[in-house]
């Protein structure tokens, strides 16, 4: 450690040995006397700077207490011209100076006479202040007169001078903040994202404004498509929701303010939608690929076997089937029933989802589920915890010895099932097409007969509970065995043996079948050419007709193939009918209340009414039908003509808006949700559509007007349209024109939006009030309570918000929207379903992959962006994608109408197979260029390339959603990103370039002069091989204000370059130095080679002078191509399948951050995502690329085993589309072939 001390001279003081106790020495006379005896020099000095020697780094324990400008006394010894500090430094004070003075003069020590303490000696003023001689108060400096060099403070802020820093330090000292000089000169620019903590899904974006780096957190606005890369592949979120890509997941997390992460790459449930042949089950295989397994085509012969799981199966086929379904190793333990052959599991009771396993030593023990599939089928358990799937829940229950069951499917607290409590045990709520549905649990094929209380014999107790669940009947186990009398009873036509109350066995048909719509995919075609809703309905019909009917195939019969039956109907002979046999006089206890307020005599009558209506009628509690009494006086066997008798009263209640026709003493009728008035004849404020109740709606609908974009909360009562303000669009005023954004003031230009600084400019919503803050931005404070009693019954109903979330009541929605000041309003009552068209549109946008066209329905401008169109709503029509003002349709897209003459427009269509160049003799030297291009797809490539005489070509390229201007080797990127339209104007004069992109102007100065003559101008291509083409439409092109017409452009063809072949033998290698290529974010490597041997290193690229550098390498290991790379925090690699020797192969590697893909001969071989913390490949200065072999051991020790000389032929090597200049060589000769590489070989 070196200290620079200054008194009148400057000394370099080296600290070698200092006591590590870090104690402050007391400057006693004896201590000072010892310093005089042991030291060569004693001096007082000011510390002007502190530095550390790297070669012999030793940091003194108390060095952190030293600061620049501190005054200390140093005791030094001289050792060969170097001053050593062997004692701790002493602080300066008058008594210390007295002690040093008397000892140096060899005089007796005298205590200093007490003097009257000055007013400023009572306190020590902080740095940057001075004591007032009259007041004794520390006062900060008012201004700085002397301007010195810039200094950097410890707060990472640059100050104009040391004086300015001291003034700031004095002010901060009063607040308890310490500020000192960190270094001389301005502070180095830090990444402002380090001090910014972004929310879920947000990206930190850095912009430079007036030389200052500013960071802000923004939501992803666009998700680019990278083809088959991992970044553009579907992902499964931690909430069990599928997204098109990780970018779409982050976008949803950001918009919903929810912490959502990637759980799996790929779909949550790959088996969902994967169709397997009849009798097989979908399971996950290698890399979570769906596979069809477990054929159920087992014979029904009775040859009972006892498995090692302690369960009895009908035959060995059923045992293997159970082992496949449960993914367990179950084998036959003994032939016969387990209770007859004495299975050790008979005496074992395994609770908490455990299963009994028979060991080879004939002992039994309970085991917990050990392995579960990597699949996301979230379930909410009874303990309030969300599990990835039911298997994980059972595993946790077994390991903790606590009973945990499924409460509902889906994440706890999220989704339609979270607030749906209408499922009766053992039913479980499952979300189907965004709606809650009660389903019954599935069972295994274990054979352990039980006799139910309904007289039916069931294969096991689980199937008994399943039957009770399906029929909604109370069935319990009467005893464990086959029902008495049914053992010898044989039933035909799908009937089952039932022991009735008279204890006599009889055959009963399966009358309790679940209802399905004809469009749910459950239809089957019977051998009688009749289409049934399900296989259960087929067996039911066959049993009643006493006919032998079996399923011919799944799906509709030919006569019913194009017939679409309504809910509950069955197609017979091409005609849809309601086939129900309801009892004539059901008991009163069988009455069921429907959601339409009608009290039905039985469940069969409710199902018949649903069939006749063509829509399901849900069962409701009896209290729901308190005002609607019904009777069925004429119920026949067919039940086709039901007469509903409604008893009216004299209350004159509105038949549409009220529950029944009764009223209280004040004449107030019982209104439906959202309905108001004494007679229930109109909707509540902010509700609309009482006429829709007559069409089947359950209540008036919320207006759902945007809080930001609408002028008022109520809406038009027949259409629900809202009154918009400040240019807002759409029925709900939730859209803005292109170039505008929705803010609290309505639609404002994107460039004009400013963050409110005070309550005058801040507008609070949802009942909040603005509270100013002197230290920061104003805040909207919400009320502590919420009272919605004035709304009646609708206040306590679940409600669907415009964000697609179901809330328990209106107060919960309002408090959430108020707390976050979000534009969230109610759009429908109940859980989010089809009544919420905003939510329906959002789900369609997530799931619909159909490409938008002009005229397609839309709800947001982003949906039409690819067409350069806008989402436009015209009176009396739905919102569709259409061209806005100043644009017109051309070849299926919108193009801008320029103020040019018709014959000045070019409208040249380029694609991936065409190349064009400008054929104009007058185009030789020019200084202005204007063009407009519409990109048909987000593909990188060259828009225009001008070949010049001095080889400083001008090239306009589309890269990373930005426009890049290249002049020779220099380049400048546009500050703004582009989508599909590029309006560009270039002007240059000597070395200055001005370009205007979509209205934004930039200026750049190049080193060279831009005045060379133009040889040729290529359009939509760079004119090189391989070509970098674009799929685009060039609207117009002007050169020096002279338009280029279609007759001025000609197609051209360039033959590909002939690649030279390099042969490698006996440690031959190529060496390229200082490539200086930017591979930090993405890396593309393409190599064509013919291997002679199974092992060999093809190339290795790194910075040999840095032992901790990043690197990439490509090698053959056991005939398998391996790409190995180091990003700074761990080795990663990706490998393909074996390739044949002595034949040509082309391998392409594509790396985007951590995602790497390998293509072998044009086919995707492997994808991999690195687990490294870093995502950048840093190979910058002094880089070296070795091809074929790495000599002299300069390869990293991590991949030293890969350094096997490559023997074979190499034809082409490209890195980021840049070809590496190879040359045919002999591996025995040494030759210099170029300035940028050296070819060498070992003799």
Automatic annotation (TrEMBL):
Cited SMART domains: EGF, EGF_Lam, FOLN, KAZAL, LamG
Keyword Zinc-finger: no
All copies of domain Laminin EGF-like, residue ranges: 651-702, 703-749
Signal peptide location: 1-20
GO molecular function: calcium ion binding; collagen binding; extracellular matrix binding
Disulfide bond keyword on record: yes
Annotated ranges, domain Kazal-like: 139-189, 211-270, 293-340, 360-414, 439-485, 501-559, 577-627, 781-834
A cellular component annotation (GO) from this entry: extracellular space
InterPro entries named among the record's database cross-references: ConA-like_dom_sf, EGF, Fol_N, Kazal_dom, Kazal_dom_sf, Laminin_G, LE_dom
Disulfide bond annotation, renumbered to this chain: 651-663, 671-680, 703-715, 705-722, 724-733
GO biological process terms on file: cell differentiation
Pfam family, one: EGF_laminin
Keywords: Differentiation, Disulfide bond, Glycoprotein, Laminin EGF-like domain, Signal
Domain Laminin G: 1059-1240
PROSITE patterns in alphabetical order: EGF_LAM_1, EGF_LAM_2, KAZAL_2, LAM_G_DOMAIN
Name of the protein: Agrin
Name of the coding gene: Cni-agr-1
